[in-house]
Amino acid sequence: MKNFLIILSLAIIASCSSAQKASEVSSTRVSIAPYLKMDCKALATEQSSLIREAEVLGALVDQEYSSDKNAELIAWVLFTPAILFMDGNAESAAQLASIKGQLEAVQEAQKINECIS
């Protein structure tokens, strides 16, 4: 019975925060049109820039996720109403989703422009 209560408590704690890990963030669809006008070199440069930005945002999303989960655990243990003040990481996750969508659009343009061999 004690193990059941511990598992139930952990399940409740794990399900309260709206924060996402970077790997859980889905891309947002972005129009390919602006990228079709770029040549292969410009597309490669854009892709490199977007990858760097995605890595930075991914680390931020994961950091905010960990912070939110830790605050949630502390709030459950110490002061349950404090859970109402958790922010999650929706803003950073939305930025990451946009970058992921841009990366997909760049990759699609590279295929159409026959940049990828």
Question: What do you see in this structure?
Answer:
- The chain is elongated.
- It has one domain.
- It contains four helices and no strands.
- The mean pLDDT is 80.
- α3 packs antiparallel against α4.
- The chain has 117 residues and is mainly alpha-helical.
- 21% of the residues are buried.
Mean pLDDT: 80
Radius of gyration: 20 Å
Distance between the termini: 60 Å
Tell me the fraction of residues in β-strands, as a range: under 5%
Concise structural overview:
This protein has four helices and no strands.
Topology summary:
Blueprint (H helix, E strand, L loop, with lengths): L1 H13 L18 H4 L3 H39 L11 H23 L5
Helix pairs in contact: 3-4
Write a concise keyword list for the protein shown above.
68% helix; mainly alpha; single chain; 4 helices
